[in-house]
Design goal:
mainly alpha, 7 helices, 85% helix, elongated
Length: 168
């Protein structure tokens, strides 16, 4: 009887050690995912800060405006975008500023998509973000052009292409 009790206690002890090791392993994986997500967030914030600095720099804005006025356009700039800008009465400076702003928004949405894929955002919040992405893609041709022609990580690029296909 004593031998049987001892075997049961040893088995329970072993199972407890294994369970605690599994828990520690799962916690390490979660901590790693959180740290990676924080790094991605920090890189996105750094890039957005760069865009803000460009928007606030008189020299940069003057340089880009001069380039725009001399006819230098991004490869994705189309006649539709030109007509839309003229209809809206946008100046060259306004167009340059809106391009920077749209790129900043893209960095923000890319970060949210990454966070969502890492399990850091709940489904309800992500569905709201997705609705906003769809609206931006379908109502603003400049946003659509910038976002579809940006050099992006494959997952966000695939998502934007799917949204574009659904809109058309």
């Amino acid at each position: 009887m004593k031998s049987n009790t001892r075997k049961i206690l040893e088995t329970v002890g072993i199972l407890s050690v294994v369970a605690s090791l599994l828990f520690v392993g799962m916690q390490l994986l979660l901590d790693r995912r959180i740290a990676t997500s924080e790094q991605y967030q920090n890189r996105a914030e750094s890039r957005k800060s760069d865009f803000r600095a460009m928007l606030e720099s008189d020299g940069y804005m003057a340089y880009e405006t001069e380039r725009w006025e001399s006819g230098i356009r991004p490869s994705w700039w189309t006649d539709e975008l030109k007509v839309n800008a003229e209809r809206e009465g946008l100046s060259s400076t306004s167009i340059v500023a809106s391009i920077l702003s749209d790129r900043m928004s893209l960095v923000h949405f890319d970060n949210l998509y990454y966070q969502y894929n890492q399990g850091m955002l709940d489904e309800e919040f992500w569905q709201g973000v997705l609705g906003l992405l769809e609206t931006q893609m379908s109502t603003n041709p400049q946003v659509r052009a910038i976002w579809l022609n940006a050099r992006l990580r494959r997952p966000i690029a695939d998502l934007l292409e799917k949204l574009d296909e659904a809109a058309n």
